[in-house]
Structure formats: C-alpha cells, structure tokens
Amino acid sequence: MATSLHSVNHALFKSASTSSLSPSPVFRLNSTTAGFNFKPLISSSSAIITRAAVSSSESGESHNRETFHGLCFVLKDNIDTDQIIPAEYGTLIPSIPEDREKLGSFALNGLPKLYSERFVVPGEMKSKYSVIIGGDNFGCGSSREHAPVCLGAAGAKAVVAESYARIFFRNCVATGEIFPLESEVRICDECKTGDVVTVEHKEDGSSLLINHTTRKEYKLKPLGDAGPVIDAGGIFAYARKAGMIPASSSG
Amino acid sequence: MASSVISSSPFVCKSSSSSSKKDLGFSSFTKSSQISIHRCQKKSISRKIVSVMAPQKDRSPGTTGSVKTGMTMTEKILARAAEKSLVVPGDNIWVNVDVLMTHDVCGPGAFGIFKREFGEKAKVWDPEKIVVIPDHYIFTADKRANRNVDIMREHCKEQNIKYFYDITDLGNFKANPDYKGVCHVALAQEGHCRPGEVLLGTDSHTCTAGAFGQFATGIGNTDAGFVLGTGKILLKVPPTMRFILDGEMPSYLQAKDLILQIIGEISVAGATYKTMEFSGTCIESLSMEERMTLCNMVVEAGGKNGVIPPDATTLNYVENRTSVPFEPVYSDGNASFVADYRFDVSKLEPVVAKPHSPDNRALARECKDVKIDRVYIGSCTGGKTEDFMAAAKLFHAAGKKVKVPTFLVPATQKVWMDVYALPVPGSGGKTCAQIFEEAGCDTPASPSCGACLGGPADTYARLNEPQVCVSTTNRNFPGRMGHKEGQIYLASPYTAAASALTGHVTDPREFLQ
C-alpha cells in the first residue's frame, strides 16, 4: 500500500467519487442574524459547506468576507485552551454534531472567577456574544481543536486578539470555525463585555472593529498568508482549489 | 569569560550578531532581562527583545567564496521534506510527512474529518507512517473516554494501521502487551523518532521529538485529517532562535530547570512561530531523556518546534530502536538566526514556575515559605525513567518520609517496569519503587497522561480541591490539573521530591549537597 511521497494519495480519487459524503458536521449550516455567506465549494452531493464566503471564481484574489454585528466578550492575556474548554470535555469528538453542540455549551467554562460574566449561560447551548476580544497570546496551550470548535459551536464568529498562539491560530484557519483577527492596539483594555461591535471587512483586505458603545474604531491587521486559506474556507477547500487534493465528484 | 559581571547579574548573554559561535561578552541586556518577566510587564519586555533582535539579513560572504545561502537545521529539514533546495523563514510550503501521531482524545476527530473529506471508503496515505497511541484518558470509567479508544481500534483495524498501541483491559495495564502510555515518550522508546524527519502529532507536546534533531510540532484534528489523506501539510518556515547552553551542569540541576529558566527569560510568547534550537557543551552532556524534557516545553514559550543537533548520544539511542534509515542535518555555519541567547549553566539554580503561568519563574529557594498540599511526578515532561531515578536518588539521600501525598505516574509501561526493576545508583541496589515506598509515596500508578491535564473526574491524582501542588508537568494555567483555584508550581523531579519531604516548595540542594 506504499504510495509515492511525490504524489497525492490516488486512492482518494476513487473513494471521493464513489462515496457520498455526509454533510460536514463541523461547519455551521445556518446563519443567525448576520453571518458569513455559505456556499458549497463542491457539488451538492458532497454538501461540504464553508463558513467564510467563497472567492469569486473569476479571480482568485478577491474575497467577500461578510460584515457582522453583535455583542463582544472581553478577555485578557494568555487565555489558554484549558480555559477555553477544560480538558475534561476533551472526550467529546468535534466532528460528531451532537458532541460539537455540547462543546459549544461548555465554551470558556474554564475561565477563573475574575471573569464575572459567563460566555454561555449554564443550561443554554449557545452564547449571546458574537465577538471575542482578547489580549496577547490568545489560545496558548494545547493543540486540541476543541478550542476553536467550541467557540464556533457556541455561536461566536470572530476573535479579535492582540496576538495568537500558533497552534490555535492555525486551527482557526484550518477549520474555518471562527475568524481569527489581530488588532493593532490593546483593544481588550478599551472594550467591555457586552459592548455592541461591528466587524467590517473592506474590499482591500483590511478589517475594522467598530465599538458602537464607546464610539471607537480600530483598524485590524490584514490576514496575511492565512488569508487565502481562510477565504477558501479552511485547509481542505484551499487544498482543493490549489489542486493539492482532488475535488470530489464533479458536476 | 569569568568577570565580576557574572557574579552580580546573570549568566544570560544576548547578542544581535549570530553568524558565528565566538564568545560574546555579557551585554547590557542582562539588566533588562532582570526586569523579571512578570505577566504584567511581559508584553513590553517581549516586544522590546523582539524589536532589538532584528533578523540578520546582511552577511559578509563566506571565506570559501561559496554563495550558498546557509540554512538552519529546521530550514534544512523542511526544505528536504518539501523537495526544495532552499527555503527561508516565511515561506509557505507543502511538506511531506514522515510520521503522524495521534491519541485517544484527538484521533477520533482526526479520522472523522479524514472520512468526511476524503470519503467513507478512503484509505490513509501510508498505514505504516501513522502511530496511534492511546494515553490521555485511559484509566477512567468515563464512557466517552472509553468509547474513544474503541473508536480508534475500529479505525486502525479498517485502515490496517501498523502501530496501534492498544489497551482493552483497563483494570490491569500490564495485561495489555501493546499498550505503551504517554505518546511522546512512547514515540521515542519505540523508535519512531529519527533525525532529519518530519513528525507531526495531534498534541502540543509533539515538539518533544525535536530532541532527536527532527522537525516535530503539534497540529489540530483538521490538519491531521488532511495529513491522513495526503501525507502532506502546508507549513510556514519558522525563523530560528538559538540557545547556546555551555558549562558543566550542576549536580542538583536538571533539564526542567533549564527550560523553565529560558521560558522565564523570553515569556510564554517569546518564541511564537519560531524554532528554538539548543546547542552548547551542556546540551551535549545531556541524555536523550533530558533533551526530551527540554524540547517538550518549547510550546510553553510559544515555539513552533524545538531542535537539538544529533550527536553520538542521539545516534546511539536511535540506532538501538529502529532500522529505518535516516539522515541527520545540521545548521550551516552561515545560517541566520533571529535571536541568540547564551547561558552559563554552571551559574543556574533550581527554579519553579509559580501559578498561573509557565513563565512565572522564581528561584526554588525563594519559595521556601510556600506551603504545599501535594506533589505530582509524571507526564511526558517529568515522568520518564530518569525523572523517577532522580526523585528516588533524592529521597534516598534524604532518608526521610514525605510530608504530603506524593503521586507517581510513570509515563509508559517501560518506565513503570524500570521503576520496579532498575537499581538506583548509590542506593545499594534498591529500585525506585522500593525507595518510593520507604519514603511514603503513593504506589506508582498505571502509566498514562494522568492528572497533568486534569481529565475526567475520576482521574488518579486529579486536583479536585483548590490545593497547592508541586508538579513535574508542563502547564500551570488556571484549572490545568482540575480545580480552577488549584495552584500549580512547575518544577524538576529533584525539586518536586525535595518539596515532598518538607511540605513546602524546596530547593533540592537541601538534600543533595
């Protein structure tokens, strides 16, 4: 069964075209009040839905990331993955829909007492907060994907942090669960949990965080190298576009 | 380089010139690094250091007249794995993967994504390059945890995965001939770590394997699902920070002290997206297990991977465990490093990381008034054979009994057996287990990740109350070992053992000198 390292696993061609893929359980299928546009990248028989909007087919450069509004939840520095989702919930499997839902209900359960607001009210499955604002080194600690998954499952759409730990950032990009944005200043010191914010994406690739409660605007850093992967909708979609893996059944 | 500067201020030398190994004087940076890296100031410190350590772009041509651009070890490994002759930091490249490891927590999700994306009937890219090691939530009645091991068994059967270290009898770990325990230790012990290779794992401490001179880093389920199908991954080439550790290792100091020292120096985000390359005479004197401890906590500094140049020690270890051919690589003399740190190890003292951050460094002796409730010796960081040997050595030298519950969790079956079989040098032939029993420690438990990350409620040694614990593990953020108000002091096995004997955080020199 040895496959050449130089080539893509050709067994995938066969299996992808003959099997019927169940709908992607990880990516959200329903948008709530406002959210990213969904558009299947591949034919409807595979029903792989992506969160971020798809680039237009004519030019690979443009993107149409949606603007959205919501309440923000403010955190400080070094929010590690065990605070985002305590390790005991690691028995839940993010790729199973019911488990993913449960993960969402436990999102940010590990926060210490100094955070008086609960991200998800006990007993509920989703959060009322759409944007998480963080300080430095957001998502440090484990490589467990349960962290970005639980935030996305809880209904959060984006994190705006001063800086990220690499594995967490990478997992956000690969899964498409939550948009990882980087601020230029320490927004977490200027916003309060419950402020109403808008995250606006501009044509030129830059983004803005507008805090309607404080009437302040913050420029956000461009996505950089992660941009194309995020815009494609995650690593799989990106790889298909780049021709690294076969698109599943055509037509 | 002895001078009065050394006695008053540290042993740390930072330099902006990194193209040669010439001895550098102690710069004024020592002062700024003394502004302790407490969390409130950490941000400004780390920014300052980074901005001063500008990447070295302009280099004078090599004396040989060669125009070949020098690459670091990591750059070379990635270039080769991407079938390129040259890569530079910042390049995004598709890399061939040599080994993919997963365990019971992330394996089901990774395979779930693999099937979802490639099809229910899809086959993995190479069933001999995947190593499945249940280790996280094993000895528990938690049904979901047990289910996850069963799920992995199904996947491994279906895909004909060659290396699946299965466990079926949870009541008696010894009844499971294939079961190993903690993945990072098992990978090394089973010969899956080889110089020059690319090893990925669905666990942050996959960086441990960098001790073998390979590129090893942690990834999530989705990336792993991708690798399962293709054997490739998209990686951004990291710049390398070089840490040169010279001098003779004091008898009371261990690799854990070295890495805690470094993380305290550069902060938990000091190496974000970067490689941490360790070299120097001290590194050369370290055993493989000590090198593993060092590289293990690279992720706690934000590092992408850690790496140590392979030498005779490495080759001796590896060649005894695998017959797969490998080719080590080494940093070129004219390679670019984005930062350079030098340590005189002989000047270092045992340190701990106080709650609640791995960079909250303090001298162990300065914490002697901290009363503790328990001690935990285990995990990939501090639960290997040599870690237990060290603790046993200290207990034996002290000849006393522990004052607080002392939990011992060997990382793997092999470590457990060593604890019960190997004689501890200088003890007249006693085994670790005997010494631990005489000291009043808990009986060594079934090998697994145990309480390092809390785990299901019935996990052995889980912190279920807001207690103070000295631990040989790797992270101490709030709630790490269970209770949100638990206070975890990260320490070396020597420091942990010494602390157990006094009931306070204790410098091991109290018992070792």
Automatic annotation (TrEMBL), chain A:
Presence of the UniProt keyword Iron in the record: no
Keywords: Lyase
Organism: Camelina sativa
Pfam families with a match to the protein in the record: Aconitase_C (PF00694)
Gene name for this UniProt entry: LOC104792177
Protein name: 3-isopropylmalate dehydratase small subunit 2-like
Aconitase A/isopropylmalate dehydratase small subunit swivel domain boundaries: 130-182
UniProtKB/TrEMBL annotation, chain B:
UniProt keyword annotation of Iron-sulfur present: yes
Pfam family for this entry, one: Aconitase
Record carries keyword Cell cycle: no
Region (Disordered): 1-26
Sequence ranges assigned to domain Aconitase/3-isopropylmalate dehydratase large subunit alpha/beta/alpha in this UniProt record: 90-362, 365-503
Cross-referenced SUPFAM superfamilies: Aconitase iron-sulfur domain (SSF53732)
Keyword terms of this UniProt record: 4Fe-4S, Iron, Iron-sulfur, Lyase, Metal-binding
CDD domains (alphabetical): IPMI
Name assigned to this protein: 3-isopropylmalate dehydratase large subunit, chloroplastic
Naturally occurring in which organism (per UniProt): Camelina sativa
